[in-house]
Design a protein that fits this description.
Number of helices: 2
Shape: elongated
Number of strands: 0
Largest sheet: none
Length: about 70
């Protein structure tokens, strides 16, 4: 996909979700585009462990739809 089309596509997919996070609210389009370009979508299924307690994390997770149980 050409880069300009990818930016438009990711902006439409993630802009609302990013704007709902206080940390990301009111960021410029340029910053939102950069964040959207780094997003790696993930679909989790029931009983799937996304990250285990005690694991050193290097990611940030956002729940766009559904629920997540923390154990």
């Amino acid at each position: 996909m050409p880069p300009p089309m990818r930016r438009t596509f990711t902006k439409h997919l993630y802009a609302e979700a990013l704007n709902n996070v206080p940390l990301f609210r009111n960021l410029s389009d340029q910053v939102l585009n950069a964040l959207g370009a780094t997003v790696k979508p993930m679909i989790a299924v029931r009983n799937q462990t996304v990250i285990a307690e005690g694991t050193v994390g290097s990611e940030m997770y956002m729940i766009i739809a559904g629920e997540l149980e923390i154990k």
